[in-house]
Every structure is written in C-alpha cells, then in structure tokens.
Design a protein that fits this description.
By secondary structure, the protein is α/β, with parallel strands linked by helices. It is 37% helix and 13% strand. It is built from 29 helices and 23 strands. Helix 16 packs parallel to helix 18 and helix 18 packs antiparallel against helix 19.
Length: 844
C-alpha cells in the first residue's frame, strides 16, 4: 500500500489530472494540450516571482545608501567618448597620458561594480567611498579636447543624440572607416579585452576588420560567430570549438585559447548573454586576446547588458563627429542640395582630422562658388610633398592661406615670431605695422578678427590676447609657401622668391611669361592652372627643380611641353586638364617612371603614345580624344587611338577615364580590343567608357575581373553622332554628371538585359533619343532603387513617367530619386504616377 493511501485512506490524485472515481478513461488530445499549457503557465509564473524577488533584494541593498549604477553609466559614456575623440587626428598624436590614466581609473571602478554584483563582496564595500570616486572621475577636465570639439557636440554625444536622419551612404562609409580605425587602435591596447560596437553597420565593421592582413598577422586565431543563433554562452563556445575542429569539446577549447592570441567577433548576441561570462577561462595576460561584440541595431544595443559596461563601447553614430563638426562651423550652406555632396567630399578628404575639418569649414563658410569647393577637394587630396608628416593639415593650410590675400604675411609672422603663450592683440598689430605688413590699426583689427574666425588664431582673456595653435605653427615654420594665387598677377615673382619655396601657388592669374630657368631646389609642388594667357613654357624652366612632385598646368593655352620636364625623375602628378590646344603627347613621357596621375581630360590629343605603357606606377589615367581623324593624313598609327597592349601594362590603375568623340571612327574600329584590355584591370575603382554597341557592354560585364557593383562608373551606350546643339540645358547635364554611377543610353530600342543590370547599380540615368520607350516602367521600376537623378532627352514616344498607380508599392522605388529633367516633344505626355521630387520640364 502506498504511504499516501495509508495515511488518508484514498489514492493520491495529482490536481493537474483530476478525474471522477470510476472506470479509467483514455486521455483525450484536448486534455494533453491543456496539461502542457498549465505546465507552461506555472513555469512562467515561477520565473516572474523569482525575478520580482531578485529585483526587490537588489533595490533594498543598492538603495541603502546610494545607487551608483546610473552614475557609472554616465561615467562610462564619458569614457567611451573621450576614447573615440582621442582616436582622431590631431588628438591621436597629442600627449594623451592624462586621459589614459583617467580611463584606467574608470575601468577599475567598473571592476568594483562587477564585484558588488555578488552578495559576499557587498558586505565589505563602502558605498560612500565608491560614490566619491565616481564623482571625482566625472569631473575629469576635457579642456584640451574642447579646443577642437565644442562642448555642445560632446553634450550631444553624451546624450546619444549625435545622429543624422538616414545618413548619406558616403557618411555611413565614413563612419565605418573611422570605427575600423578606432578598433585597430583599441586592439593594440592591452587593457582592453572586450569591445562592443553598435549601429546599423556594426557587423560590416567587424567583417572589414576581420579581413585586414595585419589582423591575420597579429592573431593566431580569428573567428567570427553569428551569435544570434545561440541563446546561451554554451552554444557560442560550441560554435567556436567546431570552427577550430574540436567538435564540442569545451575543455580542449579552453586550454587552446588560454595559450594563444585570439580575436573573436560575436555578431548580434542575445540580450541576456553576459559578455563577461563568455570565455572566462580563456584569458592570459601573456597573449593578445580580444572579444568584439557587434549589434546591427543601435536601439537594441542600448538595451543589451545595461548594468555591465564593457571596456569600450563604440557607437557608429558617434563617428559622424567630423561631419557634425563641419556642419557646425560651415553654416547653412551645407544643407543646400547643390553643396551637400561637395561638403561630404571635403570632410572625407580631411580623413577625420578634427582641426583640418574646422579650418576647412570656416574657410568655406558662405562660399557659393562651386569651383572653390572643387579646388578645396583637389588640394586636400594631394599626397605628401614635404617632410612634414601631417599631410591633411598641410594641405588644408595651403588652401586657406592661398585664399587669405594680404593676411598670409601676418599669419607667417605669427608662426615665426609670436610667443607660444600668446601676445597682447594691440602689441601684435603694432608689430605688423612696424614691419610694414599693414598700414593702419583698423586694418590690423580686422585681420585679427578674420584670423580668429578662420580658426588660425585663438583669442583668450576676453579677446585681449591671441595665440596660434602649436599644430598650425609647426606646419608653417617647417614649410615655405609662395602663395600668389588669384591676385591678378601679369608677371611671375622674381627668381629669388622661388629659391626657398617648397610650394608655389600662381593659379588664377594672368601670367603670360615664366622665368627662364628658376632655381628651386626645395620645390615640391607648382600650381600654374587657370592662367589663360600662358602659351609657352621656357625650354629650361624645369631644369633646376630636382624634387618636383606635383605640376598643374590645367586650363592654360600651352601647345607642348619643354624637354626639361621629362627630366623630373620624382614627378608623381601631371595635370593638363582643359588644355584645348595641347594635341600631342610626346613619347618622352615614358621617362617619368614615378608618375602616378596623368590627367589629359579636356585636351585635343590625337592618340596616346605607346611609351605610356612604361608608366607602370600609374593609378589614374584620364584622356580625351575629341578630334575626328577622318580628314587627317597621318602615319601608320593614325587608325589607332590607344596602342595595343598599353593598358594591360598599367595594372596598378584605379581610375581610368576615356572620353572620345562618337564621330571618331578610329574608336569604333578598336573599341573591342580596348574593352578586352580593360577587363583585366582588376584594381579599377572608377571607369568611364563609350560603348557604341550594347554587345560591348556584355563583354565588360561577363568576361571581366573588375568589380562593377563596388566602383564608380560613367557609361555611354549606343551609337550616335555628337550633337552640335543640345536641347537640354547645362543644368540637367551637370546634375547627371555629379553622380558617381551614371548610365547614358542613346538611340536605344527596347530594353536590353545588360542595360537593366547596369541600371540596377546606377544612381543617374540619361535616356537620350530612345525610339520605343513609352514609360520608365519598361526599364523595370525595381531596377531604379538607387536612382537619384533621371534625365529624359528627346524621347518622342514617352507618354508617362511610370505606369504605376500612386498606391502601387512598386512606384515607391522611384522616390529615391531627388531630381528629374525632361526635354519633351510628345504632345501626349502625361503622368500616371509622379513621385514627390524636383521636376524640370523643357517643352518644345
């Protein structure tokens, strides 16, 4: 007899399955389901009760004297912001020891807080002592950082409000690059073991870091785990063991990882996983060991492990810092659709250099001349050309001082003679007058005010004293600029002015003559562009420029280059853009073996010499062949624009632009061979070509090793004659050419498959004289997701923009476009659905 029955005189019946006494019945499916639901409900209630009990105990203990977790979160947020800003130049080269010691103290506080998570350690912990330490650390001064990043931006970052609504793709790429740079720095820090990166492209960052050669060389084991598939730590560790070939043997995994250098990426882990519990038995201070956790959604990442701060948390939104700093300094012009992409380009060229970003923003404030913005990007992109290591700041100052007019002499005086501690503003102006740099005190007052506004000088003590930043001073003292650009000069500076200069700016003048043989032993860069009266360069002009690296002769009227130029053994960049009278590039160009950039766009050269194939270091080649050769009586090479085999030798090419006249039959005769050679240039990042037939586009896309989805391109497809007068205004053509991936389809019929494939990648479409299309829908609305600019020119059969109704989901794909232009001759033109964008109609 069972004990229960002996005690109570009846059989034990469990309440979940009570039934009447009598004949036993078979369990019905409904009863089984009810039982399962009851058990599940019981488990949930037990779990809720346990959670409430733990929460009550935690609150009772933490609130006895002080609840420090909120302040700890604030402290760690400040720590992460400081570490992020210190990863940017020029902060990353400054003395950071004070901040590093402070960060170490914050990590010690985190360790104490983690210890207090256990009951045993709380008994011996002084809450008042912890509170005092946290308060002291929160008062850490950021004066040196605020000299570059205004407090208003730091406050936004602390409040997690530094973000751009749906950032431009370029801005997102910028944030990814800067986050990658910071992770690489943190990996070298032995005090940092666990890093979390959050944001829309977090996993993209970890994937980029994982594939870097230096990472593979630095760590013995590099593993990436899709942690979203595992609800617990055991699953993650088993995945790592499986990737390493240990099956599910965790003991072997622990032993191996403890004795090696490893880098483990955990993508999208579950919220309840405590990263401090992952691999607790792996750590060994003798090895470099890191765990990087990434979450693709910033809102979710803020909820993960709220009570447990990691060594570093990197928010991708915070790496929009340089863009926020630029917008703050440049003003409202950055929000103009015509300038925003140029502003992004300038920020990108600054490479995150915070001082350069602020300087360039101040210099471009209220500047509405597009050519000045383009020149700014051009100067910032120039390579090293002096011994000074800070290339970005060097280029930024070259641009700013080139536009400063007479104030450049005052700036140089400050660099050489002003005391580092600063001087009285009145005394400085008097010194300028004494040295005949200015004429009146009022003129000096205005120059000081302008230099402070330009960020070249700092004012302090209520504006009575000024000083120059050390970084700016070092660049100016170690560089000799001859800045005479845009001053309307008709004569070049005297010979003695050339001798000490490391960089000479004479662009935008009216020069017609140059010195015959100037002595320039230190000259690295010479800018002579936009001197429309300059027709001849003296034969020995370049004879005494042994280290010249950059030469810009764009938009001049020169017809040829002197022989002395081909002796410039260190020349790396040669610009002849827009020299419309320049018709022949001599074979001696092959002697410039270090040349990396050769820009012949906008010239009238007949053909490329075969010796260009010797320029194996070229990374950028731009050419224009705009003359019709039908009437020329030339030698045996006249039927070939580009000699066979030239491009295949240029295997370092990253940018290739070939602009041809569609009337030139030589191109049509050799284009197939040229496309075949281009297909082997696997390092290309930008390409411009004219395809007389769609079949040639097939050859490029099917038999090519280039990565078309990852590059910039401008393709013109379709045989046509160059129109004498375009019916479309220049504004429409300019908008089209501003985009990075452009497709122009001329004299087309129907919609070839390859056109659809390129259109799917394109951000700009120019449909010119299409003979059959009645609507853009024929090209596939789904292929226009990336389209920003659309131009329709003389497409007589066009009747509607799209055939989709306004409520049709397919129609929304065109709403990515921001600008559309139409040259319309069709009287039956209508619009079944018109996305809410900027339209421009040119009726005929």
């Amino acid at each position: 007899m069972a004990p229960f029955e002996a005690l109570y005189g009846r059989r034990c019946r469990f309440p979940v399955c009570w039934d009447d006494v009598g004949e036993k019945k078979l369990l019905r499916p409904e009863l089984v389901q009810l039982t399962v639901e009851k058990v599940s409900l019981i488990k949930e209630r037990l779990k809720a009760a346990q959670s409430r009990q733990k929460s009550y105990v935690d609150n009772c203990i933490w609130d006895l004297e002080y609840h420090p977790l909120k302040k700890v979160k604030e402290l760690n947020r400040k720590k992460d912001i400081v570490c992020l800003i210190l990863s940017y130049p020029p902060m990353n080269s400054a003395n950071k020891e004070r901040h590093k010691n402070w960060v170490r103290d914050v990590l010690k506080i985190n360790h104490k807080v983690r210890e207090m998570e256990t009951f045993s350690s709380r008994k011996n912990t002084s809450f008042s002592e912890l509170t005092s330490e946290i308060t002291t650390l929160l008062d850490h001064s950021l004066d040196d950082i605020e000299a570059y990043v205004p407090p208003i931006i730091i406050e936004k970052m602390c409040e997690k409000t530094l973000q751009v609504t749906e950032p431009d793709e370029k801005l997102r790429n910028l944030a990814v690059n800067f986050a990658t740079r910071q992770i690489l720095e943190e990996i070298e820090n032995p005090e940092v073991r666990r890093i979390r990166i959050s944001g829309r492209d977090g996993i993209r960052v970890t994937s980029a870091v994982k594939d870097l050669p230096q990472i593979r060389k630095r760590f013995n084991i590099v593993i990436q785990v899709d942690a979203s598939s595992y609800p617990n730590i055991k699953g993650i560790e088993e995945n790592i063991a499986t990737q390493l070939g240990f099956s599910l043997d965790i003991w072997v995994l622990n032993r191996v990882l403890k004795n090696t250098s490893f880098l483990i990426f955990l993508d999208d882990p579950y919220e309840r996983i405590d990263l401090y519990e992952v691999g607790r038995k792996w750590w060994n201070s003798k090895n470099i060991q890191k765990i990087v956790c990434s979450t693709s959604c910033s809102t979710r990442s803020q909820e993960v492990h709220q009570r447990m701060a990691l060594d570093r948390q990197i928010r991708l939104e915070d790496h929009l810092l340089s863009w926020e700093l630029f917008c703050l300094n440049v003003g409202k012009i950055v929000h103009s659709s015509g300038f925003q992409h140029r502003a992004i380009d300038v920020v990108q060229k600054c490479s995150g250099h915070l001082l350069a970003v602020a300087l360039m923003a101040r210099a471009l404030k209220m500047v509405f001349d597009v050519s000045i913005w383009e020149h700014a990007s051009y100067i910032l992109s120039l390579p090293h050309r002096s011994q000074w290591k800070d290339r970005v700041l060097y280029n930024a100052l070259a641009f700013i001082l080139g536009r400063s007019g007479s104030a450049d002499k005052c700036v140089n005086y400050c660099a050489f003679y002003m005391e580092r501690e600063g001087v009285d503003k009145v005394d400085l102006i008097q010194e300028w007058i004494r040295h005949a740099l200015i004429s009146t005190f009022d003129e000096g007052e205005k120059i000081v005010q302008d230099l402070v506004s330009a960020f070249l000088l700092e004012s302090f003590q209520n504006g009575y004293f000024v000083q120059m930043r050390d970084e700016i001073r070092e660049v100016l003292v170690n560089s000799q600029f001859l800045l005479q650009g845009g001053k309307g000069l008709t004569k070049a500076p005297k010979d003695d002015a050339w001798e000490e200069a490391s960089e000479i700016h004479l662009m935008n003048n009216k020069l017609s003559e140059l010195p015959k043989i100037p002595n320039c032993p230190q000259l690295c860069a010479l800018f002579l562009q936009k001197n429309p009266s300059l027709r001849v360069i003296p034969p020995l002009f370049f004879q005494r420029m042994p280290i010249l690296q950059i030469l810009d002769l764009s938009h001049t009227k020169i017809r040829s280059l002197p022989q002395s130029l081909y002796g410039l053994a260190q020349l790396q960049r040669l610009f002849l853009r827009g020299c419309k009278l320049f018709m022949e590039l001599p074979p001696e160009v092959g002697k410039l073996s270090n040349l990396k950039v050769l820009d012949l766009e906008g010239t009238e050269i007949i053909r490329l010499p075969v010796d260009v194939g010797k320029l194996t270091n070229l990374t950028c080649l731009k050419m224009s062949f705009c003359g019709d050769n039908d009437n020329r009586k030339d030698n045996q090479y006249s039927n070939r624009i580009i000699p066979q085999g030239v491009k295949s030798n240029l295997f370092h090419l990253k940018e290739l632009i070939i602009d041809v006249n569609p009337n030139d039959k030589r191109w049509n005769a050799n284009v197939e061979e040229i496309v075949e050679e281009v297909c082997n240039l696997d390092r290309l990042e930008a390409l411009q070509l004219y395809f007389p037939e769609v079949l040639l586009l097939n050859n490029l896309m099917d038999g090519s090793s280039i990565n078309l989805p990852g590059m910039h391109f401008r393709f013109t497809v379709g045989s046509h004659l160059k129109p004498i007068i375009s019916r479309l205004p220049l504004e429409a053509i300019a908008k089209f050419e501003e985009e990075e991936r452009c497709l122009k389809y001329v004299n087309g019929k129907g919609v070839p498959t390859k056109i659809e494939e390129v259109l799917e990648l394109a951000t700009a479409l120019f449909l010119d004289r299409h003979s059959t299309a009645t609507s853009l829908s024929e090209f596939g609305i789904e292929n226009m997701r990336n389209l920003k600019v659309c131009v329709l020119g003389e497409c007589d059969e066009i009747q509607t923009i799209t055939d989709a109704d306004e409520d049709d989901d397919g129609a929304v794909h065109l709403e990515g476009a921001t600008w559309m232009a139409f040259s319309i001759t069709s009287k039956s033109f209508g619009a079944a659905y018109m996305p809410p964008i900027d339209y421009h109609f040119y009726l005929e």
